[in-house]
Specification:
The complex is a heterodimer of chains A (378) and B (630).
Chain A: H1 18-29, E1 38-43, H2 49-63, E2 67-71, E3 84-90, E4 107-110, H3 120-139, E5 154-157, H4 165-177, E6 181-186, E7 210-215, H5 217-222, H6 232-245, H7 257-266, E8 270-273, E9 278-281, H8 291-295, E10 299-304, E11 314-325, E12 330-334, H9 339-342, E13 347-350, E14 361-362, E15 365-366, E16 370-371
Parallel strand pairs in A: 1-5, 1-6, 2-5, 6-7, 9-13
Antiparallel strand pairs in A: 2-3, 3-4, 8-12, 10-11, 10-13, 11-12, 14-15
Helix pairs in contact in A: 1-2, 3-4
Chain B: H1 10-23, E1 31-32, H2 38-48, H3 53-69, H4 74-88, H5 90-93, H6 98-104, H7 106-110, H8 116-138, H9 146-152, H10 157-168, H11 174-199, H12 207-229, H13 236-241, H14 245-261, H15 263-284, H16 300-313, H17 317-339, H18 346-379, H19 381-386, H20 389-409, H21 414-427, H22 430-453, H23 460-494, E2 504-505, H24 524-541, H25 554-575, E3 583-586, E4 589-592, H26 595-605
Antiparallel strand pairs in B: 3-4
Classes of the chains: A alpha/beta (378), B mainly alpha (630).
Chain lengths: 378, 630
C-alpha cells in the first residue's frame, strides 16, 4: 500500500493483529478524501473498541493533518473525564496506546452520568448535536471558496452496551450519522455480539457503506474468552483524579491520591457569585430550598448556557464545588479549566458523576461527607 | 491493567486505595454519605416520622437533595417513598389537618386524589423496591431465593408476598398494600433508623458528656506520656498498665476521631485544661513545695507534650487553639469593658486575672508554636511540596492571627504584644518585625509611665500616650492591610485583569476539607451588607427559622448577630450613654477624655468589630456553640 514508515511500537502490551491493521489501512487509504471517511467503531463491552479507535486515529493521522474523534462512551471516554460526550480534533499521533490521554475537546456536552440508560433521549440529542457541529464546521465547505480544503475524517467510538435499549441507541446513532465505514468488533461469545451485517439499515438502502467485521484482539493473543473485566468504577475515579491533577503544574511532585487530595484541599478555589450563575441538576428534581445541600462537595459540569442551543449548553470542563457561602453568596469551585474559558461559564450542571472518595478522605482533612459510624446495613 | 496508568504511579496508588478501606475499618471506617453531619440526619429522622405535615415535607425535601447527590442508602430512599405516598393517600390524610398539608405541598393538593388503583400501584412499587433493594445488599449468594434472604433479615412476610404478587400476579388490593406500608415503615425503623440513631457517637448526650469524654481522653494521654517519659521513677506496675505504645496510639486515634466530629469542643476543652494548669501553677507559686509526690496534677510542661503529640496528627490544632485563646481574651475584655465602670468587685478582679492568664497562655502557646514549627513542616513536608500556595497560605493565617493579636494588645496587654512579635518572626517579614519591636518598646515605656501615674486620675499624659499607642497600632494594622492589598494587586496583574469578572480566584485560602469553608477574619462592612442578602434568601427560600439544622444559613446569622451586638456594645457606651459620656475606660477605670481624642480613639477602636470568630460556613465544625459567646 502506501509507503509509510512503520511506527515503532511503544506499547508492547498492546497487540495489533494483522486483521486490525488491514481494517485501519482500508479506512485510511482505500477511500476518497471528499467526503472524508466517517468510521464508527462498535462492539460488545471490553472487545477493544477504544484500542482500535486509538489505533485507527494514528493511522488516519498519517494521511490527514487532523482527525475528528467523536466519543459517545460516557462511562469511559477517551479524552475527557467520565460523563462527557465530546468531539475532539486530534492533530498528533498518540504513541502509547495503553493510556487514554486527556485532551481539550473541540466541543463537549456534559451528560452527567456514566451510562446512557439514565436518559437515552437526551443522550442521543447530545450526540446528534455534536455530529451536526462536526458536519457544519469540518465537512460542509463552500466548494467555490476553498476547493483545496479537505474535510476532516471522523472516528466515532461507541459504548459497549449493545443489547436492549443500548442496541436501539446504537441503531439510532448509526442511522443518523450514516458512516462511510462501520467497524464491528466481534468476540468469541456469539450471543454477546451485534447482529451480522448492516443491522441498522432498512432493506432498500443504497448508500455507500463499508462494513468491516473484525475479531477482538484478545481472543487471538490469549486464546481465551475475551471479556477481561475491568473495575469500571475505579477506572472512572482514576480518570477524574487525573483530570483534577491538571489543576497543578506538572512539575509539582504529586504522585499519589493522598498527595492529590491534600493539594486539592489547600488549592485556592475560584469564587463565583451565586447570583451570576444558574444551577441545574441534569437528572433530578431538587427543591429550590435544597439546592445548596445538593450541590456542596459534588462534581459539576461547567457550561455556557448562551452558546449552543437552549438545551444543549456547551461545556468547558469539570469542577468540584468545594464549598458554598450562602452569606457572601459565593460558590467555591476547583477546576483546571483556564481562566479565560472559565469567564464564559454561567451554568453549573449537576449530575451523578460521583467525586472519588479518595479525594475526600485524607488524614487531617476528612470531608464531612465521609462519615464514620454508618450502619453497614444501609 | 490497561488504562489504569492515567496518572503517574497510579498502580501503587490503586493498591493503597483498595487496602486502605478494610485496614482502617475497625471503628473509624468512613463511608460517603449525602448528609453534611449527623445533626442533619437526626433532623430528617425526627421530621420524617413527626405528626406535622410541614416537618414531614421538609424532611422529604431534604431527602430529595440527598438523592440528587447519588449516594442515598436504599433504606432511606424507600422510607421517603412510602411516606410520600402515604401523604397522597386520603386514608392517612384525613386525621391530619388538611389545610396545613395543602399549604406545605401545594403541588399535590391540586391533583386532588389518585385512584385507588394508582395508589395501590405506588405502594406496591415502593414495597417491591424495599424488598429487592434491601435484600440485594445482604444476599451474598444468588442461589438463595429472595424470600429466604428477606426472611433472614426479618422483613415481614406480608411484604415479601406483596413483592411476589405485585410482580408476577394480580396487583394487591389497596387495603392490603396500605396496611403493609405501615408494617414496612415499622420494619425500616427497626432495621435502619433506630439502630443508626444509636450508632451515632454521643447522640442525645449533652455537650457536657462529650466534653467529659474529651477531657478524660486528654488526661489519659497526658498520663500515658508521663509514664512513658519517666521510665524509672515510677512503679513498674503502673507502667505496665498504661503507657504502652499501643495504648498511646489508641488514645490518640480516639482523640483524632473526636476532633473530626467535635473540633470546637476539643479545642475549648484543651484550652480549659491549659488555663487550669496555668491557674494552678500560678497559685502553687504561693504554696511553696506542697508537692504530694507524682500527683494527678499535670503540669504545663506535660501538656506541652500532649499538644505536640496531638498536633502531629492534627496540624491545624495549634492554630485553632491560638485563635480560641484570642477569642476568649476578646470576650473577657469586652465583659470588662462593659462592667468595668461600675464594679470593682472580686468578680472583676478575677476577670482581669483570667485575661492575664489567657494572655500568658497565649504567649506560651506561641512559644510552643515556634518550637513546633520545624516539626510541623517536617511532618507536612509533602503538602508543602505539593502546593506552591501552601507557604503563603500559612503566612496569611499567621498574619490574621498577628492582626488579631495586635488589636487585642492595644489594651496594653504586654504579653500579647510579645506574642505578636514572636508571630511576626514566624512570618519572616523583617520589616514588619522591626516595626513591631519599636511598637513594643514604645508601649512598654508607656506602661512604666502608667504605673507611675496610676493614682493620678487626670493625668492626660497617660491616655495621650495610650492614645498614641492605640493609633500606632491602628497605623500598623493599616500598613499591614496595605501590604496585603499590594501583594494582592501584584497577584492580580499576573492574570488578565478584566473588570467584570465572574470567576475570581479566592484571595486567601486556608486548607480545609472539601465540602467545608474556613475563614478567619472579615470586615464589618461586608458583614452588614450581608444581612440584607440573608433576608432575601430567607424570603425566597421560605425556610422555617425554627429548624435549627439549616446550618447553611442560620448558623451564620447567629454569628453575624453576635458580631453586631459586639460592635454595638463596644462603641456605643463610650459615645452615647449619658452618664459615662466623655469618659473612656483605661486600664479598668473611667477617665475623662476630650472630643478630639475621642474621635481619634474611635477611629482606632473601630478595628474592634473587625475581628470575628473563625467561621466555618458549611460544616459540622460550627454546629456546636463555642464555649464562650459574647
Amino acid at each position: 500500500m502506501a509507503s509509510r514508515s512503520e511506527p515503532e511500537n511503544p506499547s508492547p502490551n498492546i497487540y495489533i493483529p494483522p486483521e486490525w491493521s488491514e481494517a485501519a489501512d482500508c479506512i485510511a487509504y482505500d477511500s476518497v478524501t471528499s467526503p472524508p471517511p466517517i468510521a464508527i467503531v462498535c462492539g460488545a463491552k471490553n472487545c477493544g473498541k477504544s484500542t482500535f479507535s486509538r489505533y485507527l486515529l494514528n493511522i488516519l493521522l498519517q494521511r490527514y493533518k487532523k482527525v475528528g474523534y467523536l466519543d459517545t462512551d460516557v462511562g469511559q471516554p477517551e479524552f475527557s473525564p467520565p460523563g462527557f460526550l465530546s468531539l475532539t480534533v486530534v492533530d498528533e499521533v498518540t504513541p502509547d496506546l495503553t493510556i487514554p490521554h486527556l485532551k481539550t475537546p473541540e466541543r463537549c456536552l456534559f451528560f452527567g452520568d456514566v451510562s446512557s440508560k439514565r436518559n437515552p433521549t437526551t443522550y442521543l440529542n447530545y450526540i446528534f448535536a455534536l455530529y451536526d457541529y462536526y458536519q457544519k464546521e469540518y465537512c460542509l465547505f463552500d466548494k467555490s471558496a476553498s476547493p483545496a480544503k479537505v474535510g476532516l475524517p471522523l472516528v466515532v467510538n461507541t459504548p459497549g452496551w449493545v443489547k436492549g435499549v443500548g442496541y436501539d441507541i446504537l441503531v439510532d446513532m448509526l442511522k443518523y450519522m450514516a458512516p462511510t465505514h462501520a467497524v464491528k468488533i466481534n468476540i468469541s461469545a456469539e450471543s454477546k455480539n451485534l447482529p451480522c451485517g448492516a443491522f441498522w439499515l432498512d432493506e432498500d438502502h443504497d448508500g455507500m457503506l463499508n462494513l468491516i467485521e473484525i475479531n477482538s484482539a484478545r481472543q487471538d493473543s490469549f486464546n481465551r474468552s475475551v471479556l477481561v473485566q475491568k473495575d469500571a468504577r475505579l477506572l472512572r475515579d482514576v480518570r477524574i483524579m487525573a483530570y483534577f491533577r491538571q489543576c497543578f503544574s506538572s512539575n509539582l511532585n504529586i504522585t499519589t491520591i493522598k498527595e492529590l487530595a491534600h493539594a486539592l484541599a489547600s488549592h485556592p478555589p475560584y469564587e463565583v457569585p451565586i447570583s451570576s450563575i444558574k444551577i441545574r441538576h441534569l437528572h433530578c428534581q431538587v427543591p429550590g430550598s435544597e439546592i445548596f445541600y445538593s450541590l456542596n462537595a459534588t462534581i459539576v459540569g461547567l457550561a455556557v448556557s448562551s452558546e449552543g442551543s437552549k438545551d444543549l449548553p456547551w461545556c468547558a470542563g469539570l469542577g468540584i464545588v468545594r464549598g458554598i457561602d450562602t452569606f457572601k453568596g459565593l460558590v467555591y469551585v476547583i477546576t483546571p479549566v483556564p481562566r479565560g474559558t472559565l469567564e464564559k461559564v454561567n451554568l453549573l450542571l449537576q449530575g451523578f458523576v460521583q467525586i472519588p472518595t479518595g479525594l475526600l478522605q485524607v488524614q487531617g482533612c476528612i470531608s464531612p461527607y465521609m462519615s464514620a459510624n454508618v450502619l453497614s446495613a444501609s | 491493567m490497561e488504562a489504569l496508568l492515567g496518572f503517574k504511579e497510579e498502580s501503587t496508588d490503586y493498591d493503597q486505595l483498595v487496602i486502605s478501606k478494610p485496614s482502617s475499618s475497625a471503628s473509624y471506617s468512613y463511608k460517603l454519605v449525602p448528609w453534611l453531619s449527623w445533626d442533619e440526619w437526626l433532623f430528617v429522622d425526627e421530621s420524617l416520622f413527626s405528626n406535622s405535615p410541614d416537618s414531614v415535607a421538609s424532611a422529604l425535601r431534604r431527602i430529595s437533595a440527598w438523592r440528587s447527590r447519588g449516594c442515598l442508602p436504599v433504606v432511606i430512599e424507600v422510607t421517603a417513598s412510602i411516606i410520600e405516598i402515604q401523604q397522597k393517600d386520603p386514608h392517612f390524610r384525613k386525621d391530619q389537618s388538611n389545610d396545613a398539608l395543602d399549604n406545605c405541598r401545594a403541588d399535590q393538593s391540586s391533583d386532588a386524589s389518585l385512584s385507588d388503583e394508582m395508589l395501590a400501584m405506588l405502594y406496591c412499587m415502593a414495597i417491591m423496591r424495599l424488598v429487592n433493594g434491601v435484600v440485594e445488599k445482604t444476599r451474598k449468594k444468588t442461589e438463595v431465593s429472595i424470600a429466604v434472604a428477606a426472611d433472614a433479615i426479618g422483613i415481614p412476610r406480608t411484604l415479601i408476598d406483596i413483592r411476589h404478587e405485585g410482580s408476577h400476579r394480580e396487583l394487591p388490593a389497596l387495603e392490603v398494600v396500605r396496611s403493609a406500608s405501615v408494617k414496612a415503615l415499622d420494619w425500616l425503623k427497626y432495621y435502619y433508623w433506630e439502630p443508626q440513631k444509636k450508632a451515632i457517637p454521643f447522640h442525645g448526650n449533652e455537650t457536657a458528656d462529650i466534653r467529659t469524654e474529651i477531657r478524660s481522653k486528654f488526661h489519659e494521654l497526658a498520663l500515658c506520656l508521663r509514664v512513658k517519659n519517666t521510665p524509672l521513677s515510677l512503679s513498674s506496675k503502673v507502667k505496665e498498665k498504661r503507657g504502652s505504645k499501643k495504648d498511646l496510639t489508641k488514645i490518640l486515634k480516639s482523640l483524632v476521631g473526636l476532633y473530626a466530629s467535635f473540633s470546637s469542643e476539643v479545642v475549648s476543652v484543651l484550652l480549659e485544661i491549659l488555663l487550669n494548669a496555668i491557674n494552678i501553677s500560678d497559685s502553687s507559686k504561693l504554696l511553696v513545695n506542697t508537692q504530694n509526690g507524682p500527683s494527678l496534677h499535670i503540669s504545663l510542661n506535660e501538656w506541652k507534650l500532649v499538644i505536640t503529640k496531638f498536633s502531629n496528627k492534627e496540624p491545624e490544632l495549634l492554630l485553632a487553639l491560638l485563635n480560641a485563646a484570642l477569642d476568649m481574651i476578646e470576650t473577657r475584655e469586652a465583659v470588662l469593658f462593659e462592667t468595668g465602670g461600675v464594679c470593682t468587685s472580686s468578680d472583676h478582679r478575677a476577670e482581669i486575672l483570667q485575661v492575664e492568664h489567657l494572655s500568658s497562655l497565649f504567649k506560651w502557646l506561641v512559644g510552643n508554636f515556634e518550637g513546633l514549627k520545624p516539626h510541623l513542616e517536617k511532618d507536612s513536608a509533602p503538602e508543602i511540596k505539593v502546593s506552591l500556595g501552601e507557604k503563603t497560605i500559612s503566612k496569611a493565617i499567621l498574619m490574621e492571627l498577628l492582626r488579631k493579636c495586635l488589636v487585642l494588645s492595644a489594651s496594653a496587654n504586654n504579653q500579647l504584644l510579645d506574642s505578636a512579635v514572636h508571630l511576626a518572626q514566624q512570618t519572616g517579614d523583617n520589616y514588619l518585625l522591626g516595626k513591631l519591636n519599636k511598637l513594643s518598646s514604645l508601649v512598654s515605656s508607656n506602661l512604666d509611665v502608667t504605673e507611675e501615674y496610676d493614682s493620678l486620675k487626670h493625668s492626660t499624659n497617660v491616655f495621650k500616650n495610650e492614645d498614641e499607642s492605640i493609633s500606632e497600632a491602628a497605623k500598623k494594622l493599616e500598613m499591614i492591610k496595605q501590604r496585603k492589598m499590594k501583594s494582592k494587586v501584584v497577584k492580580r496583574t499576573d492574570g488578565d485583569a478584566r473588570n467584570t469578572k465572574r470567576w475570581v480566584l479566592a484571595k486567601s485560602w486556608n486548607p480545609c476539607p472539601i465540602g467545608m469553608l474556613l475563614e478567619l477574619l472579615e470586615k464589618v462592612s461586608q458583614l452588614l451588607g450581608r444581612k440584607e442578602n440573608w433576608e432575601l434568601n430567607q424570603c425566597s427560600g421560605k425556610r422555617e427559622a425554627s429548624s435549627d439544622l439549616q446550618l447553611l444559613d442560620n448558623r451564620c446569622v447567629k454569628k453575624l448577630r453576635e458580631t453586631e451586638d459586639g460592635c454595638v456594645s463596644d462603641i456605643e457606651p463610650v459615645l452615647s450613654t449619658e452618664d459615662v459620656s466623655g469618659h473612656l475606660m483605661i486600664g479598668g477605670v473611667w477617665k475623662k477624655v476630650g472630643e478630639e481624642e475621642l474621635l481619634a480613639i474611635k477611629s482606632a477602636v473601630r478595628i474592634w468589630p473587625h475581628t470575628k470568630k473563625p467561621a466555618v460556613r458549611i460544616g459540622p465544625h460550627e454546629k456546636k456553640k463555642p464555649a464562650c459567646t459574647m
